[in-house]
Amino acid sequence: MDGEIFFPTATEGPTYEAQVAVAKAVCLRCPVRAECLDEALVRIPYGIAGGLTPEERRGRGRPVAQETTAVVEAGLRAGAHRGEREAAGRVLLTAGRPVGEVARQCGVTERTATRWAARAQLATSAAEGSTGGHRAPLLTSHTHSTQAGTRTQEGHRS
Q1: Coil, helix or strand at residue 146
Q2: Rounded-to-integer distance, Cα 80 and Cα 88, Å
Q3: Of 19, 67, 125, 154, which is most buried, counting CB atoms within 10 Å of its CB?
Q4: Quick check: 137 and 129 in contact, CB under 8 A?
Q5: Do residues 120 and 94 lie in contact, with contact meaning Cβ atoms separated by under 8 Å?
Q6: How many domains are contained in the chain?
Q7: Exposed, middle or buried by CB within 10 Å (0-12, 13-18, 19+), for 16?
Q8: Would you say the pTM of this structure is higher than 0.85?
Q9: pLDDT tens over the chain, length 158 residues
C-alpha cells in the first residue's frame, strides 16, 4: 500500500473528499487504529491518521501536534511509560531546556523534572574528571619511581 494515500493532494472539493474517503477506509480496517489516533493527537499534524483528518482531530478537544516540538525531538511517544518519559526529559534537560518546560512537555511535575535534572547532572559529572564527581581532572604521574602505597614502580610488573 502506498503511504501517500494518507496525505490528500487536493485541498477541498469532491476530489479531496474522495481521497479522504479512501484513506479512512484503510484506517477502518487497521488493527492499530486506536494507537495511531493517540499518536496523531500528539505528534502528527498532517494527513489522515487514526481515521481522522487534522481538522477532525482538532475537534477532539486535544491539540493537534505542532510540526516540531521538543518532545518529538526527544523521542517521546503518546502513552509513554515512566521510564520513557524520564529518558526523554533527561535528553531535553541536557539540551538546556528549562525544568518547567520539560515538566509540561513530559506530563510530570516540576519536582519530578528537577529530580531528572539532578540525576542527569550527577551522571555527567561522574563521567567527567575525578571519581569524586567534582569534575577535577584526573592526574597521573609521569615518574617511574615507586608511588606512595604501592609496592612496585609505576609501569613495571613484578
Answers
A1: strand
A2: 10
A3: 19
A4: yes
A5: yes
A6: 2
A7: middle
A8: no
A9: 788 889 988 888 999 899 999 999 998 888 888 888 888 887 778 889 989 888 888 777 554 444 345 555 566 665 666 777 788 888 888 888 889 888 888 877 888 889 888 887 776 665 555 555 555 565 665 665 665 665 655 555 55
Q: Exposure of 93 by Cβ count < 10 A (0-12 exposed, 13-18 middle, 19+ buried)?
A: buried
| One domain for residues 74 and 52 | no
Q: How far apart are CA 53 and CA 7, in angstroms?
A: 9
Q: At residue 60, what is the residue type?
A: R
Cell of residue 84, nine digits: 520513557
| Torsion sign, CA atoms 15, 51, 104, 98 | negative
The DSSP annotation for 35-63 comes to HHHHHHHHH--SS-BTTB-HHHHHTTTSP
The domain containing residue 45 runs over which residues? 4-59
Contact (Cβ atoms closer than 8 angstroms) between residue 62 and residue 68: no
DSSP state of 131: T
- Indicate whether 18 belongs to any domain: yes
CA angle 105, 108, 111 (to 5 degrees): 120
Q: Quick one: cell of 28?
A: 477502518
